[in-house]
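Throughout our pipeline, every protein is held as a single compact record rather than as scattered files. Such a record has a labelled line for the sequence and another for the backbone structure tokens. This encoding replaces a full spatial description with a residue-level series of whole-number codes. For reference, a complete record is included directly beneath this paragraph.
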Amino acid sequence: MYKKRLYKTALISAPIIALYGASPVFVLFSNFAKSIPNKPSFIEAWSFLTIVTLILWAINLYLISAFDKKKALNSLKRYLLSYGIVIFVTLLTIPISMFTDKKEDVPLLFPFLICIANNSIILIIANSIIDKSKQIQADNEIALLKISNMEAQQQQLIQQLQPHFLFNALSTLKSLIKINPELAEEYLIKLSDFLRYTVSSHNNKIVSLQEELIFTQDYIELQQIRFSDSIKCNWNIPDQVIKQYHIPIYALQTLVENAIKHNAFTEERPLCFDIVYTDGYIKVSNNKIPKPNSSTSGVGLKNLTERYRLVCNEEIEVENGLHVFSVTIKLI
């Protein structure tokens, strides 16, 4: 992952490092060899140091590759070998005396200092790139683990909905069989279609808004069979919106079920739903007819809140007014 960046950095940085090295060397060299007729120009010195710097990069890239295979990139041995090879290569470079005559002495310490300084810069740059790449790789691995964990949580939350709904549906069917067998048969047919959808799509985290609306309408019809005119629903969602957006699975159905569960409605005082679209959001509202002495665990709403946070990092907006309860959810 980081090797391509190292190669690219080597080519780009070599002339810059050489420029940094050539400037003081050329000044000091000039002070020691003012009388030398054939002393090199600044361009010559810079070109020479660029080649030397590329050689230093090549040495360090080889060592990085070798120690990476051994999983010992931060080993002290790599740094010692790097400086040792650099000093050895410096001894094999063209002697600085070729730029001087026999009467002038130029300190031979110069090429060693420059090569060691340049090598130190290369090591710092290379280690910075390696550490950054390792950090990015670690962050990516952590992100993948988080995604996997989130997906597992989402699946667990979705699976919690199915037995909860099935228990309520079977309880309703049991009651209808005693009261109205023909209506119970109709209810069973709709329930079969309803459960077929839950089985076929239970692995989905999100579904099209159109699918969720059909699913929720089927659920409302199932409840209307049981409660007759005690439940009414008003829909106001444009057709183009229905085809455009997606939504977490069971989102609307959960809100409708939650309201039915916690309200004591009758034909004289029906439970009325308004499901309305506004600017990328759907608002599900219902009038409040709270059951006396009812304890509300809020499992369904907490479940939906958690799933929204996991799926799209969004919060749902709950308004618990005096006469109206509403939940606003974002479309995807």
Observations:
- Residues 180-330 form a domain with the Heat Shock Protein 90 fold (CATH 3.30.565.10).
- The mean pLDDT is 78.
- Residues 173 and 181 are 9 Å apart (CA to CA).
